[in-house]
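Form 7-S
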Amino acid sequence: MKRWVPVGMALVVAGLVGPASAATTYLAVEDLGVGVTALNVQCADPSQFTTFNYTSHAAGPETPPLGTGSLRIDTITGYYSGIQFGGADLSALTPGSFAVTAYPATAADEPVHAYVRVSTTANGVWVGLASTGDLARDDWNAEQDFTALQFDWDKVTTADVLADTTIADFVTAKGTGTFFAAVLASGCDTQEPYYIDRLRGVSLGEATTWDYEKVYATALTNSTSTASVRAGSEKTVLGQLTSTGLLVNGRTVHLLADTFPPGGGFTDVGTDGTSFEGFLSSKQKPLRATTYRWSFTGVTYYGPSTSSDVTVQVRTAVSAKLADAFLKRGERVVLTGATNPKKAGVQVQLWRKTATGAKLLKTGTTKSDGTYRLAKQLLRKGTYKVYVAIGATPGNLPGTSQLRTTKVT
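Output:
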C-alpha cells in the first residue's frame, strides 16, 4: 500500500450523499445545494478514513470558461480529501456512471484519484485506488470515466493485493458487495485546490449528473391539512422542497400567509430550513381564515419556486366561566366570557346539552370588546351541562365553548 505515494496538489469535486451538519474548515463550497459527505483517507494507509459534512459556503474563483459554479476542496496534511458516493452493491458502478470534470488551480497538470471501498460477502473488505492521469489546466472540460480506470486493490487487514484491475474485473474475481466510492485529491501535503464544474456519480445504482454551471429547477409542495382549527390554537403548516428528484436539504424557505379578508396580499410569517429529505414545518396560530403558501427564493444552483395555496378555516374561540357550580332551584346560571378574535355586536347562545341533543336556554349579544354575559333562571332540579355558541362570522366558522356543569337542588 506504500505504492500510493502522494504527488502533491488537491482536488475539487461534488458529492451525492450525506446531510449537512457542523461546519468544517476543511471544505469550502460555493453555495452547493446537494448534501455532501467529504472523505479523508490516510495517505500512509488508505484503509483508514474519516468522514465529515459541510454547511459553510465560500465563493471560489471563476471557473473558466463557463462561470462561477464550481466546487472546491482543500486537503489536510497526511490525507487524501474528497467526496464519497454510496451504492447498494459494486455492480452499480457501471461504465460511465462515475466520472468527473475538473481543472487544477495551478498551471501544472495534476492527476486525480478514484477510491473504492467494498465489503464482499465471501472475500472481506477491499480498497482500491486509481489515478485518472493528468488533468490539464487548459483542458478542464475533459471528463474522466473512473469505471474505465485500472485500480490497485488491497485487502484490509491482510497482505492480499490485486493490481491493475478494473471495477468490472474485480467483481468477477472477488464478487460484489456493499460499497462506497470517492473522488480524491492527488496530494496530501499541499493546500492547492482543484475546482470542478461537473460530476457524474452513482448512488444506489442510479447515475446522476450534477452540472455546477446549471441552475436546477425546484418544486415546492404544500401538504398542509385543510382541517379547521380553533382561533389561537396551533396549526402545523407542512411542505417539501425538491429538485429534479434530488434532495435539497439545509435551505431556507419562507412561509407566506394571506389572512381574511382575502386579496390583501401575502406577508412573510415564518421560515424553516429543509430537512435532509427537504421537508418543511411551521407552527402557526391563525385567528381568521388564512391561506398559506411556501416560497423559495433560490440560490446559486437551485432556482426559485412557490407552492400551491392551502386555506385553513378558523373557528371562533369562545371562553365560558361559570359563576356558580351549585344552585338552588329558581336561581340563575350565569356564564361570562369572550370571543377570540373579538366579535362585537354578535349573537351568542347558551345551550344545555341533553341526552337527545341540545336545548337553547338563552340568547345574548357580545359587547364592543367581544365579551358577553348570559344568565338563565333554572326552575327544575338536576345536573345541567351548558355551553356557549356563536355562529359563523366573516373570516370565522361557528365556535363553541367547553362544557360547564352546574347542579340544581
